[in-house]
Amino acid sequence: MNNNTPPLDITRKVVIVGAGPVGCLAAIAFAKMKWQVEVYEARPDLRLSSSKAAAQQRSINLAISSRGIAALRAVDASAAERFLQTVIPMRGRMIHDRQGNLQSQLYDKDGQCINSIDRTLLNEGLLEEASATPNIHLNFERKVLSADFDQRVLFLRDGNLGTDVRVKFDLCIAADGSYSIIRRQLMRVVRMNFQQEYIPHEYIELKMPAGHDEHGNPAFLLDPNHLHIWPRHSFMLIALPNKDKTFTCTLFAPTVEFDRLITREDILLWFQNHFPDALSLLGEDKLLKDFGKNPRSPLITTKLTPYHYKDRCVILGDAAHSMVPFFGQGLNCGLEDVRVLLTLLQEECVVPTRAMPNSGDPESDFIDQRLAKALARYSASRHEDVVAICELAMDNYIEMRHSVTTPVYIIKKALDHLLFSLTARGPTVLSSLGDSLSRIAFPTANPRGWLPLYTMVTFRPDISYATARRKAARQAIILTTMARLGTAGMCATSLYLTWRVLRWLRSQR
Q1: Rounded distance between C-alpha atoms, residue 229 and residue 249, angstroms
Q2: Whole-prediction pTM value?
Q3: Of 124-138, 388-402, 442-456, which gets the smallest average pLDDT?
């Protein structure tokens, strides 16, 4: 037997790179499967007060919906319920036009909501859960320098001591974000198809302070149960509520638009022209302070395949599929990655102890064939879903910043919901899916009846993104045909009425 062959009947170690929400959930999941888990994060511990100020400058407030909640529950149901105590439900979009008029557009006819949650609070909660788990060891300020997947070794720099360390692993999971170091290392050993696109838009975060009620207590300045949108065709402002009665606002605009906002006067005049009602709530001094302090951040879409190498490595979350945030699915998709991977590991009967070597080909002696098959299935099945949601997210930007204000969009949405109401057998709520999502990645392969795209993506974790997109495309053809027939019918009716009027006029001569 080769000297590199690991000893048998020893609990295997999974090394997780990245201690964000996805990395932490993966750590908890593998710990519950009895693996030894080590997490390595390049940044300082997010729970330290010194780390929080920097985190709040860049992080878009998160909207967690059924997919993310289903993943949390599949890993740790009790922890999921604790996290849900910190969310604020949002029933729909509140559209703010230029004149300050408001229009509520509900997300779901049965009252299902998406939930506003502070990214830092969610991350801190998951870190606390991981810290309390005996077989998880968290390591901060440890930056990955390189990886040797064949030898199962990571090379890291200890930021505290300034020394380099070697870490052995049985499995490496990368959850280290859009600019993943592990992904770059994986490209050295895998023929990876990789596509990265920066869209010509950026974002900056702003803060809407709390107001006060008649008793002097903090109060929301806007309805907290809506996601507020100020759509302005090529750009938009959004606002999500926080537990402290403030709103986290995010301005999305083309880079060229931001480049024009140089002086204090430029910024204030621009907001007065485009968002006068929001400016009065943000406050001029606070707006200028946030504009000067908070960075402009890029928006990126990343697509790649495959996501794994043998039985050695797999990448999850933004490391595998960065997406623009306009469908609110970036976090949800990343958390769902963990749930989908777990179902495949269970289906392939992967165990936490090192497998017995296979006879035959010496190369196969060092590979856990069950784990390798599970990771291969993950790459093969997850890619179509990831591409679908990345492209849907970009499509939704156009909808949010412009289409939501148009009569055609409003009519099509009304027809969409009417057909949903006429064909739906009743709401499929998350609780009705039971534990099926813990055992099967997507139990509903052929959804029946009429289902709006937003409903499938946001409230139906039993339906994959790719399935939702295909069904929505078929339904869009039907909607377009109905609209054309309706237009033709109105034209015919108009011609008939005109003909009758002309006949009546002639008869009066």
Answers
A1: 10
A2: 0.90
A3: 388-402
Mean pLDDT of 321-328: 93
Q: What is the pLDDT averaged over residues 43-59?
A: 75
Q: Which SS3 state, helix, strand or coil, does residue 63 take?
A: strand
Residue among 423, 425, 443, 426 at smallest CA distance from 434: 443
The confidence score (pLDDT) of residue 360 equals 45
* Distance in angstroms (rounded) separating the CA atoms of residues 501 and 328: 53
**pLDDT bracket for residue 124 (50, 70, 90):** very high
Q: How far is CA 100 from CA 260, 264, 285, 438, 447, in A?
A: 25, 23, 21, 45, 40
Measured on CA atoms in the order 337, 343, 347, 349, is the torsion positive or negative?
A: positive
Is residue 182 within 8 Å of 144, Cβ to Cβ?
A: yes
Between the alpha carbon of residue 437 and those of residues 8, 14, 76, 395, the distances in Å are 32, 24, 13, 28
Residues 6+ apart with CB under 8 A from 351: 370
352 vs 392: CA distance, rounded Å:
37
212 by DSSP, 3-state: which? strand
CA distance 309 to 372: 8
Q: In this structure, what token pair is assigned to residue 237?
A: 């402002």
* Distance, CA of 238 to CA of 81 (rounded, Å): 27
471, 493 in Cβ contact below 8 A?
no
| Beta bridge partner(s), residue 313 | 172, 309
Task: Sort strands 313-315 and 171-174 into parallel, antiparallel or unpaired.
Answer: parallel
- Of 21, 23, 45, the C-alpha closest to 140 is 45
Q: Which residues contact 170 (CB under 8 A, 6 or more apart)?
A: 6, 12, 13, 14, 152, 354
CA 308 remoteness from chain centre: 21
How far apart CA 388 and CA 225 sit, in angstroms, is 29
